[in-house]
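Lab meeting notes turned into a lecture example. A postdoc, R.K., suggested we walk through two folding results consecutively so the class can see how the record format repeats. The first protein's sequence and structure tokens come next.
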Amino acid sequence: VDKGLATTLQKLETTCQLETQMLTEEFAERRKRLVSRWSLAEAILRKRLENDTGEAYGALPPILWDDEKQEIGEHEEVIDDELARDARMAYDASALNMI
């Protein structure tokens, strides 16, 4: 009976590890596609703004995920400029409407 239980536990552990790996890969792929969509939306909105104003604008910095922010830790740049914060909020609102 102990051998059967040990074998079953080993199979469960193996299955759990495989499923965890598959889910991790799936979410990484989804994240990659979502970031691509956001980048495209940002580029479209920036181009429209450039066409409307006649001025050139640089791309926004990439959006960081919570786990990426933890990796950066104390070196994370904080946007202090009020204009930059307002632009970021306006971009986020507009991008959400496009998605």
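The second example is placed directly after the first for contrast:
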Amino acid sequence: MASESRLYTFSPATQEKLRKFRLGTSRAKDPQAVVYQIDKHSLEIAQADDETYNNIQELADDLPDHSPRFILLSYPLTLPSGRLSVPYVMLYYLPVTCNAELRMLYAGAKELMRNTAEVGKVIEVTEAEDLETIDDKLGGAA
């Protein structure tokens, strides 16, 4: 991880946003997601916009067709035991149509983003439509 931390950067403001999102969503009643991207020139990882998504379908509609993204997701669900759980995960959105340069850029930053955001699990997503079945990937009750 040492080489990634020298190559990719997070501004102090971005690190604070990551911390606040993680702490602020742990008791959320609705899904909450924020999208992060890498600036190709400065290699800074930052929030793509200031929006916090509460609707998974809206998030899926807003994702680009040909560019990867890191999506931090806090998703309340009911476990098969009936207990409420709010997993905090990172969705690694990597569309099959994105070019090799972007694939490598995001692949190199994946573990750094995971560790900096302190997520419990990384789920790879290749199509925005995969977000509709996120319940199944997180182990929620049917």
